[in-house]
């Protein structure tokens, strides 16, 4: 389930899923559309102008509707900004047919004034992707009532994180694993902040984990990574 869209996303590769995890994490991203269809009449015209064969259905030879892997909507300085991203393993960038297809995409988006780019696994740092996958199913929490109690207790935590989580469960008679579930949820929501360039470690000293005070204060009054 997408964090931003609250719907299931469809992917053709693990690399696309990894990228979703990253853009879902970025606060400025407010909408994510995958496998975005391009206007076939426009791509046919571009391919003709370039002298490039348009992608076709292998069975019928009919020109297919081309797609871009991701169309992202960012909110930047109170304006909506669109960015189109194509996801591909770096090893595929030497294939002539693929690069010709990408040139059609590039010009398509350039003509619309939309920033377009190619993202490979090299722009997806392994520790960050691993951490975001670990948090993937923690964005929503069944029992929201536990969170305030947990944050109150956090002020008294010291030493190893896991020991504190177990003590928290014991004190409030919560079932085993509740503490870890809440901790992961608060990381996913950016209420608690850790260095995402390192593996999330339950043996971490709690002094190395920061509370996002601004987020908590903003919530009481009514979320570290880049995307290429």
Structure, explained:
The chain is of the alpha+beta class and 228 residues long. It has two domains: 14-124, Trna Endonuclease, Chain: A, domain 1, CATH 3.40.1350.10; 127-220, Winged helix-like DNA-binding domain superfamily/Winged helix DNA-binding domain (Arc Repressor Mutant, subunit A), CATH 1.10.10. 39% of the residues lie in helices and 16% in strands. It is built from eight helices and six strands; from the N terminus they run H-E-H-E-E-H-E-H-H-H-H-E-E-H. The chain has helices at residues 14-25, 40-50, 96-111, 126-135, 145-154, 161-171, 178-188, 213-220; strands spanning 29-37, 67-76, 79-87, 115-119, 192-193, 210-211. The strands form two sheets. The chain has a four-stranded mixed sheet with strand order 1-2-3-4, with helices on both faces. Strands 5-6 form a two-stranded antiparallel ribbon. The chain is elongated. The model is unreliable at 217-228 (pLDDT under 50).
What is this structure's SSE topology?
Elements: H1 14-25, E1 29-37, H2 40-50, E2 67-76, E3 79-87, H3 96-111, E4 115-119, H4 126-135, H5 145-154, H6 161-171, H7 178-188, E5 192-193, E6 210-211, H8 213-220
Parallel strand pairs: 3-4
Antiparallel strand pairs: 1-2, 2-3, 5-6
Helix pairs in contact: 1-4, 2-3, 6-7
């Amino acid at each position: 389930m997408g964090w931003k869209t609250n719907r299931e996303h469809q992917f053709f590769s693990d690399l696309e899923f990894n990228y979703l995890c990253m853009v879902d994490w970025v606060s400025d991203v407010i909408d994510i559309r995958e496998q975005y269809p391009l206007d076939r009449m426009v791509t046919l015209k571009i391919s003709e102008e370039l002298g490039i064969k348009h992608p076709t259905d292998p069975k019928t030879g009919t020109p297919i509707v081309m797609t871009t892997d991701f169309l992202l909507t960012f909110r930047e300085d109170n304006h909506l900004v669109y960015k189109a991203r194509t996801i591909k393993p770096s090893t595929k960038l030497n294939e002539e047919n693929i690069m010709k297809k990408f040139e059609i995409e590039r010009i398509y988006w350039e003509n619309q004034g939309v920033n377009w780019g190619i993202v490979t696994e090299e722009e997806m740092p392994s520790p960050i992707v691993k951490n975001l996958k670990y948090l993937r199913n923690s964005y929503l929490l069944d029992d929201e009532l536990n969170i305030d109690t947990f944050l109150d207790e956090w002020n008294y935590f010291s030493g190893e994180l896991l020991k504190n989580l177990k003590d928290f469960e014991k004190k409030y008679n919560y079932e085993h694993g509740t503490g870890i579930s809440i901790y992961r949820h608060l990381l996913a929501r950016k209420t608690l902040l850790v260095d995402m360039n390192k593996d999330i470690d339950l043996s971490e000293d709690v002094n190395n984990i920061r509370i996002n005070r601004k987020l908590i204060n903003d919530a009481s009054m009514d979320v570290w990574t880049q995307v290429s």
